[in-house]
Amino acid sequence: MTVAPPTDGVLVDRYGRVARDLRVSLTDKCNLRCTYCMPAEGLPWLAGPELLDDDEIVRLIRVAVHQLGVTEVRFTGGEPLIRPGLVGIVSAVAALQPRPRISLTTNGIGLDRLAPTLRTAGLDRVNVSLDTLDAERFTRLTRRPRLADVLAGLAGAAAAGLTPVKINSVLMRGVNDDEAPALLRFALAHGYELRFIEQMPLDAQHGWDRTTMVTADEILAALRAGFDLRPDPVERGAAPAETWLVGGGPARVGVIASVTRPFCGDCDRTRLTADGQVRACLFATEESDLRGALRAGADDAELARRWRTAMWGKRAGHGIDDPTFLQPVRPMSAIGG
Ligand code: SAM
Ligand code: SF4
What we know:
Layout: E1 11-12, E2 18-19, E3 21-25, H1 54-68, E4 72-76, H2 86-94, E5 101-106, H3 111-121, E6 125-129, H4 135-142, H5 147-160, E7 166-170, H6 180-190, E8 193-197, H7 216-224, E9 229-231, E10 242-246, E11 252-256, E12 269-272, E13 277-279, E14 288-289, H8 290-295, H9 300-312, H10 332-335
Parallel strand pairs: 3-4, 3-12, 4-5, 5-6, 6-7, 7-8, 8-11
Antiparallel strand pairs: 1-2, 9-10, 10-11, 12-13, 13-14
The structure holds S-adenosylmethionine and iron/sulfur cluster.
């Protein structure tokens, strides 16, 4: 393999991985304050002029799809549903040829109202984050009393055909780690696909602790006590979730074990922050500034060249278990989870 980044073609790194899946953060702001993500008082938000505007976002996604081989676009944040231009951005991306698959990761608040419009604009699927079914716990965990809104959002997404509707759950010891079976029963009853995500060191407060995090093994043991889980025969590919058939299928449950069973060798992600920085990884400590280049008048070919160079430098793995691991300066909400 050459040592210089490629001058054309797809987003390949020096380990031969190709990034086809683009995660775009539309805002760093949020209407919840999940304890594993943000402090109670929020964060110093990006100032208006620092954010890419809607046209800039669509232009960079167009470069990714037309010139860099991106086939999947996922909008995230912060909370993407609070971005005013969301529907217009989705419909502009849905008009690209070849049309990428378009999905959204959201806390679900307001999704009951927005789901039909987003579906019509071209959104294919949603992932809704839900860590507990207990209203009081929800309020403690997210610091806002919004469980009913999230449940309504899930139902609205399913009714609008944003399927399969997936649920993301993070379990925390002593907070909601007894809820794995109840969350799975709920998902099965409603036809949602549940995925547990191991808690990662991406909180602004730096409160993550490897020795107390709830591991994939623990989650699976808790589920196996109440459900028959069998390995999913479907090839995993670059999907972060390892999945199991529940009760012989077709229902599935997944675990994204980023910490205890890292899948960096198969990663196909590239990330764009709300202020126009390319990140090769959630845990990258380097970013590459596309906004500056774009606003200085760079053409599409130059933006693509910079993006390729940024991805070429992607590290082999996140190194969370390495003693020299450094948590990225930006928290999850500012990177785009
Ligand atoms: N606000 C949206 C939401 O909550 O779905 C999108 C952004 S949020 C940062 C994306 C996902 O990251 C959510 O599923 C959330 O649970 C997860 N997340 C946030 N902080 C995390 C952490 N420290 N470890 C693991 N997952 C985390
Ligand atoms: Fe907001 Fe999502 Fe972070 Fe919760 S996890 S505070 S909903 S960005």
